[in-house]
Amino acid sequence: MNEASSPQNDLPLVRRLEAVGFRAWPAASVVYDGSWQVRLTGGHPSKRLNCIVPLDPSDHRDMATRLEKARKRFEDYGRPLVVRETPLAPPKLIDHLNAAGWRAFETVDVLTVNLTELELPDTLDHLPSHDIGRFCDASLAIDGEDAALKPALAEILSSIKPTSGFFIKENPQEGAAAVALCVQDNDLAGIISFAVAKAHRREGLGTEILSSALRWARISGARSAWLQVVSTNEPALALYRRFGFRKAYEYRYWRQESRA
Question: Is 113-249 in CATH node 3.90.180.10?
Answer without folding.
Answer: no
